[in-house]
């Protein structure tokens, strides 16, 4: 029989497995970072003397860097090629993780840690947009679906194991270990890349610093203004000035992007109504997901006074249900033929779950927390995969790469703005002593959950009114 033809630059079978392993470990490392850091926040705050405001900042600066720089990853891939961009992202993420682990004590701790976390987010922004593109290019069409499924599955495994792994690491090796563990993982990814033959050619394109800088500054100003609401109050002139300034900067950034011959992201895609609805819902779902993960973890650790290992184990119903919801999404979409079914099922489950968990927090008995955790986790996991499939269906084929980057940017931005708003509520509910001690009280957690539930209700109403019925 004649040898099977392969596309130029596509490695043979064994090398495909190394590609998939490298991309899966990278996606998993980024997902792991979200859950392990949530578990490490409390001991980190106690060791470094972080306030509650700075605890939110440790999570926020990472998500904000990832959101604002994700388009740069796509732009860099066009300019330098997929391999070089992914390699650079892995090195940046690994080195920044090591720096986080060696954060010095004292007055330098806060600026050093925030800077390292921002660089870590920048590394993730170079990796994530490239990973799925590499898999799509390397695997033939008949293999692609399974390969993407394995990639997503590896990321979910890392996500689910994150709380337990993080708790064990912090318990026996200190909070710094949750960052340092990324270093050997990064080395493994680099070794796997060395055993692949991903094409190094780049299609070409410019790499402008003006648009990325404008995005970072405008989004940073908007998120900072939102965070400071908790200090100043929503009606304070300083708050209004900060929010208005951020909004104006963001509007100017959008105008700059629209007028560019090579835009950082193609925001004109938002004129496609089904795409805009899917992206808006993705934005609204990501916000409560981050609120529930961070504040739910702090509630278990601080308000219920669970040990570190017990906190990690207690989070399993939430993260495992979220992973199950992610896998169930495709099944519901395929069986129903309508994106409404998985999205509405997920949003109803998430809304009820967040409400139940918020109501159970007054008892501080773990058994009462579990039903809400399971419903909230499952519901938050269901909508996004179905929405991703829908938005890719409604955009032109040649715009799918741009559509994916814009979706990733707005998804992460939803998480950043949601957590910033929740942080402002925490600061307004906590007293100064609790904030200075890095404590998020149960009443402050409850306020954050009320905000998450309100966002989910808005998303549910939007989905009922705007989502299409059965596919044509």
Tell me the layout of helices and strands.
Blueprint: H1 13-48, H2 52-80, H3 82-101, H4 109-138, H5 141-173, H6 177-180, H7 182-194, H8 210-227, H9 229-232, H10 237-259, H11 273-303, H12 308-314, H13 316-336, H14 340-360, H15 366-381, H16 383-394, H17 400-429, H18 432-436, H19 442-466
Give a description of the structure:
- 80% of the residues lie in helices and 0% in strands.
- By secondary structure, it is mainly alpha-helical.
- It has 3 domains: 1-199, MFS general substrate transporter like domains (Growth Hormone, Chain: A), CATH 1.20.1250; 209-264; 268-472, Growth Hormone, Chain: A, CATH 1.20.1250.
- It is globular and about 55 Å long.
- The two termini are 42 Å apart.
The CATH top-level class label of the largest domain:
Mainly Alpha
Structural class: mainly alpha
The CATH topology of the largest domain: Growth Hormone, Chain: A
Shape: globular
The CATH homologous superfamily of the largest domain: MFS general substrate transporter like domains
Keywords:
472 residues; mainly alpha; Growth Hormone, Chain: A; 3 domains; globular; disordered N terminus
